[in-house]
Amino acid sequence: MCAATRFPEAIPLRTIKVKAIVRALVNFFSTFSLPKSGQTDQGSNLMSKIFAQVLKSLYIKHRKSSAYHPESQGALERFHQTLKAMMRKFCLESGREWDEGLPLLLLAVRESVQESTGFSPAELVFGHTVRGPLRLLKERYLSDTATPEQNVLDYVSCFRERVHKACEIAREALSASQEKMKRKFDKKSVQRKFEVGDKVLTLLPIPGSSLQAKFCGPYAVQEKLSDTDYVIGTPDRRRNRRVCHVNLMKPYFVRDAGVNSSSSPAALSAVPVVVPASPSQYSPESDGLVFVCAEGCSRLRN
């Protein structure tokens, strides 16, 4: 997905091995040209040497998001949810495979106006509205007047002006949308800072179960990359060093020895109290329902 225009692309693959991914990317680059940089997660296929060599040979800077932090690519993750819901509905209603309807679903997404930019992704990329499902619906119910003819020079001049103006408006709308989302997020967020050498607990997946995670550690902060990313030393795992987002970290505090000993189960165990026994007595003032067993101690008579 293009970060500026929100133009999405989805290519069905039989396997997600690095060679298949590289072939699909080269095919995509042949249509939309080579980007200056690209961001991916830290999947094993995207962190391989072959993938790094291909990007280096094409002079593409590889930016890696923080591990186990999908918010780093929030727009892309949200598109994944939308596309999965659309493919599920397509398969249930048509009874066909999802890859057969993928091109039409992408066409519908690309012509939909994005709330963050105010334009459709196709309009920002191609400079005009595409003739998709929404355009067909408009033509069906409204009389579409014929557009006047233009020569090539007039069309190119108007095209450049239209694309430039649309990109400026989209950039301003995207900045305003990001500021609005940031203010909403900052209301409930807590700022945390760590220094090199601090002991922290990190939320990491449980070995052997990628669907479960827990706070592990304590680990030491080895390097501070930014206000949100830190390099953590994990000597007990296969990777000795890893980049972690601040949202997956919390400070580690050592318990005081005195407090720990006083709050131990042995220190808090109940102490038995011995009450000296005395012969049961009958109180003439009672109503015959209470036995006086000891001084200040009575019980009901059976």
Oligomeric form: single chain
Which spans have pLDDT < 50 for at least 5 consecutive residues? 261-275, 298-302
Q: Which class of secondary structure composition applies to the elements?
A: alpha+beta
Give the mean pLDDT: 78
* CATH homologous superfamily annotation of the largest domain: Ribonuclease H-like superfamily/Ribonuclease H
- Spatial order of strands in the largest sheet: 6-5-4-3-7
- Helix-strand pattern, N to C? HEHEHHHHHEEEEEHEE
Q: Find the CATH topology of the largest domain.
A: Nucleotidyltransferase, domain 5
Which outline best applies?
A: elongated
Helix content: 25-40%
N-C termini distance = 82 Å
Count of domains: 3
- Helical element count? 8
For the record, the CATH class of the largest domain is Alpha Beta
Main sheet specs: 5 strands, antiparallel
CATH architecture heading of the largest domain: 2-Layer Sandwich
What Rg is obtained from the alpha carbons, in whole angstroms?
34 Å
Count the beta strands: 9
Tell me the fraction of residues in β-strands, as a range: 15-25%
Protein name: Integrase catalytic domain-containing protein
GO molecular function: nucleic acid binding
Domain Integrase catalytic: 1-129
